[in-house]
């Protein structure tokens, strides 16, 4: 459901929105589900005014009934399978990324996750005229690093400029920033301001580490996942999310390291496909394994190499 903003109704001005957000009323659905007298108390609006906003939001954002055949035809027409630009990875993914899906790349620290993301950004932008949206939660996205990857792959200067212009980068510091950014992308796609097939979020766990309250964290993850599903399904994008493996050691041998996915049990079943990346010791090579998928062969894997020109 859409996030509340001033464009939705003249009475939803900044002070009113701030008062609503302070009470965890973020979306149209939150607003409609909350008792009118409660919103009156929060915002100091009159009962009639709140009722008018409520009716307007219901009329504008209520679900529209669709028949199954037309919905199926839309999916067939607008869905796309696009290459990652990494041949061996494409092979185990049966062609590349499929829109409508959420993919997760997880691995230990320094296993090559960000290098893989940069390679995906470069390859998808290089092989299409579409935008790629990169959400950076760690504040470590580097335009220079991406340009170095492009230069190392012997891309000419004119093409480098074109590719860089197709990549949209947003740095976020909190979960709320991330959710707002996802809603912004939704609005950009709805108004056809951008043409987008791939959204990368690098990475999720840093935003949630500081939230100790389980119910609050669960609620925020649920809200985030709902928007991600809308972006993937309704706007036919593929979403790639980076996650971490937390480790436990049975003993001192590296062979006895076991990994646990970040963000807990609820998140575990959210991605359609989970890829685990593991870097070989004292080597530039790493393996990518399909650890979980509702469409692809689980356990399928490939070996790739980290180079100055990205992952190949």
TrEMBL record:
GO biological process, one term: DNA strand invasion
Superkingdom as given in the UniProt entry: Eukaryota
Xref: InterPro entries: HRR_RAD51_Paralog, P-loop_NTPase, Rad51_C, Rad51D_C, RAD51D_N, RecA_ATP-bd
Molecular function in Gene Ontology: ATP binding; ATP-dependent DNA damage sensor activity; four-way junction DNA binding; single-stranded DNA binding
UniProt xrefs under SUPFAM superfamilies: P-loop containing nucleoside triphosphate hydrolases (SSF52540)
Lineage: Eukaryota, Metazoa, Ecdysozoa, Arthropoda, Hexapoda
UniProt-listed CDD domains: Rad51D
Keywords from the named record: ATP-binding, DNA damage, DNA recombination, DNA repair, DNA-binding, Nucleotide-binding, Nucleus
The protein's name in its UniProt record: RecA family profile 1 domain-containing protein
Subcellular location: Nucleus
Claim: Nucleus is one of the keywords in the record: yes
GO cellular component term, pick one: Rad51B-Rad51C-Rad51D-XRCC2 complex
Keyword Transcription regulation applies: no
Domain (RecA family profile): residue spans on this chain: 78-245
Matching PANTHER family: DNA REPAIR PROTEIN RAD51 HOMOLOG 4 (PTHR46457:SF1)
Similarity section: Belongs to the RecA family. RAD51 subfamily.
Pfam family name, one: Rad51
């Amino acid at each position: 459901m859409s996030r509340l903003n001033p464009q939705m109704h003249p009475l939803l001005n900044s002070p009113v929105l701030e008062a609503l957000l302070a009470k965890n009323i973020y979306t149209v659905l939150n607003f409609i589900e909350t008792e009118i007298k409660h919103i009156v108390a929060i915002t100091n609006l009159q009962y009639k005014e709140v009722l008018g906003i409520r009716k307007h939001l219901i009329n504008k954002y209520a679900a529209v009934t669709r028949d199954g055949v037309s919905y199926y035809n839309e999916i067939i027409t607008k869905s796309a399978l696009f290459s990652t630009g990494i041949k061996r990875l494409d092979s185990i993914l049966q062609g590349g990324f499929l829109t409508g899906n959420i993919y997760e790349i997880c691995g230990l620290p320094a296993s090559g996750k960000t290098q893989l993301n940069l390679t995906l950004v470069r390859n998808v932008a290089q092989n299409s005229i579409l935008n790629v949206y990169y959400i950076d939660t760690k504040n470590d996205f580097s335009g220079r690093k991406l340009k170095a990857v492009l230069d190392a792959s012997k891309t000419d200067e004119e093409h480098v400029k074109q590719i860089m212009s197709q990549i949209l980068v947003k740095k976020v510091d909190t979960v709320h920033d991330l959710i707002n950014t996802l809603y912004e992308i939704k609005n950009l796609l709805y108004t056809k301001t951008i043409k987008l097939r791939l959204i990368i979020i690098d990475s999720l766990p840093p935003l949630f580490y500081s939230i100790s309250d389980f119910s609050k964290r669960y609620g925020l993850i649920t809200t985030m996942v709902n928007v991600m599903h809308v972006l993937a399904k309704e706007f036919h994008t593929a979403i790639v999310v980076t996650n971490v493996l937390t480790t436990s050691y049975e003993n001192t041998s590296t062979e006895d390291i076991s990994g646990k996915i970040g963000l807990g049990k609820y998140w575990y079943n959210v991605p359609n496909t989970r890829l685990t990346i593991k870097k070989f010791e004292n080597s530039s090579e790493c393996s990518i394994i399909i650890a979980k998928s509702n469409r692809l062969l689980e356990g399928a894997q490939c070996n790739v190499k980290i180079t100055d020109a990205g992952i190949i």
